[in-house]
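Quick question, first post here. What does this chain look like in 3D?
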Amino acid sequence: MFTDDVKLTNPLHVAFVRSQIASGEIVELETEDALEAEGVAAVHTGADVADLGSLSVNPVLPIKHLPPFSVLAQATVRGLGQPVAAVLGETALQAADAAELVYAEIEPTESSPILVAEKNWSNAQYEEAAAKADHVVSCTIQHPRLAPSPMEPRSIAAAYDAETDCVTVWHSTQTPHRTRSELAAILGIEAKRIRVIAPHVGGAFGMKASLYPEDVFVVWAALKHKRDVKWTATRSEEFLSATHGRGIKSEGELALSSDGTFLGLKAMVEGPVGAWLPNSGLITAWNAARVLPSGYAVPAQDITTQAVMNNLGPTGIYRGAGRPEANCLMERLIDKAAAVSGIDPVELRRKNLIPATALPHNTLTGNTLDSGDYAKALDVLCEAVDYPALLAEQTRCRAEGQLVGIGIGFYLEPSGNGWETARVTLNEDGSVVVASGSSSQGHGRETAFAQIAADALNIDIDQISVLLADTAKTPEGIGALASRSTAIGGSAVLKACEEITSRLEASEALPITADVRYENKGQAWGYGAYLAQVSICRSTGELSVERITCVDDTGTIVNPKLVEGQILGGLAQGLGEALMESIVYDEDGQLLTGSFMDYAMPRAADIPTIDIHKFETPSPMNALGAKGVGEAGTIGAPAAILNAAVDALRPLGVTDLTMPLTSQSLWRAIRSAEQGKS
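> Answer (accepted):
Ran it through. C-alpha cells below.
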C-alpha cells in the first residue's frame, strides 16, 4: 500500500499554483475566481503561512547564507516551480481545475548566484608538488542534473482527529521520525500531536529524505481546517519541484612523477543548491570533496568545495550524493595520468592505492578509512575478466577499425554515521517482534533485520516479525539514507538481541524487551572496482555497453541476494547518468525535460551483461562489521563507463567527454576529431 492508496474520511485535496518564472516579485495574486469554483473549500497564499518556522539543515559545511524555507512564496519567487498559492478542493480534479483560475502576476527580476557554504582542506604543499612533478594532468567534469524518479512520486495524507486535535500522517518518506520532529518544529506544536507512518515507499533514492514545503502545507491545512487533507504530486511536478540530484561541477589536477607515483591533488568542487535547502542539502557538495582522493595515497592536497544557490529546481541527495562525483573526478585524472605516463591504468592504480597494512588511515579531509584491501579489488577484477586477454582482444578489434574501449573505476564509499535504535521483544510463545527506528524504501530491510535477529537468538526466521516506519510503534530513529540502515540499524538489532540472550541466561521470565540506542564508532567505508567494455559506432555515435564487471567489498554480508539487488539497482541508475539522463533548462530558465517524453531513463534492454563479484572485510566501526552497498553501483559505473568511452575514442585524439554519453554528443566528438586530423 502506497501513500496515495490511503483512504481518508472525506478529505480535501490540494493543488498548488506554481511560479512559471525562476526569479521575480509577486505583484498580484487573484484568487476570487478559484474560491468561487465548484468544490473549493479554501485558497491560501503566502500570507496565511508566513508565521511558520524553518526546516533544519545539516551544517556539514560552514554556512554563509541560508535561503529561507517558504511553504508558499512570500512576496518573492526564488525558484522555478515554487508554490505561490494552494487550492483545497473536495476532489483532486476540482482542486486542479480551480488552481488554473488563480491569476499570478509575477514581475521577473535579475538573479545572481549566491554562495551558500564553502570549505577548504589543504596541507599547503600542492604547488610545491606540482612544480617538481614530471606530469600534471587536469580535467573538468560537469555531472548532469538528474531526476531521481521513484515509482511513487511524493505523496502525503493527513487524517485529522477532532477529539484529540491531532493528526496521523502517512508520508512517502525515508525518514518518518524526522518528518514528525520537523513538522512539529515548523508548525510550532508538540510532536505528540503528530503520528507519522511511512507505508510502501516505492523507491526514494535520497529524494524523499527531507520534508518539502508541500508536505508542511498539507499538515498545516489539516490542522487549520480540521479536515483530512491529501496531496500526491504529478510526475511533471516531480520534474519541476522535487529535489534533483548531481549537477556537480568539479575541476582537478593530479601531479605525478615519471614512475607513476602520485605527488599532489588539487580540486575545486561546485555544487548547485536551489531556492531552499532540504535537510541534507549540503551533503552532496561536502561528499564530492571530502571523499577525495578516494583510496589513493596522495601526499599534497588542496581541496575546496562550494554550495552555490541558483534559481533552478531544488537539489538534494541522490543515490551516492557526492560519492560518484568525487570518485569520477579521481578516476578520470588517473586515466589521463596513465595516458601521459604510458603506464597501464590498472598498474597505475595499484601502485598508488593505500595498502591494506596502512589501514585504518586518516585523511586530510577528516575521515578514517577503516578496513580493507583496496588492491585486492583490482586483483579480483583483473582475474575475473582475464585482463591481459581483454587487452589483446581490444588491440585486435582496433586493428580492424573498431572503436572499442575498456574503462576502470575504483571507488570508495562512506556509509552513514551516528546512531539508530531497536526494540526487540521475546514473547512467551517464542515469537519475536523487532521494532526499528530505521525504515524501508522497498529494499528488503525487513528480511535483513529478521535474519540478524534469527541468527542472534538462534530461532527460526518465521518466528520473527519486523515493525518499521511508524512513529507510534517504533522507537525514534534516523531512517534509511546514506547506506546506514544495515550497518547501524542492523547493529542496533544485533545488540538488542544480545541483551535478550544475556537476560535469558540470567533466568528472567518471559516476555523480555530490550531497547537499544546504538551508535557506531565511525563511518564504514565500502569500496570496489568496476570494469566496463564499450563499443561506439563510428557512423552514428551510438555507444553499446558490452559488459560490466563489478567487484565490491561490502563488509559482513547479511543477505547476499539483497546485496546483489542493491548493486544491480545502483548500477542501473549509474548507467542512466552515464548514458542518457539529464535535466535540461533553456536560456530563460524554463524546464525542457518535464516528462518522460523528454527525460530518458534506462529500460531493461539497456542494461548490459553484469558480472558481480564480492568479498568481505568486516568493518571495525559497527557491531555487524557491515559496510554500505546501496550506492556502490551509482559510484563505480559512471566512472568506468566514462573512462571506457574516452578509451574507445582515444585513437582519434579524443581526451575528454561529458556525460550523458548520448549518440549525438559522441557523433560530434568523432566528427570533430576526424576533421581535426584531416
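The CA atoms of residues 203 and 441 lie 5 Å apart.
The mean pLDDT is 94.
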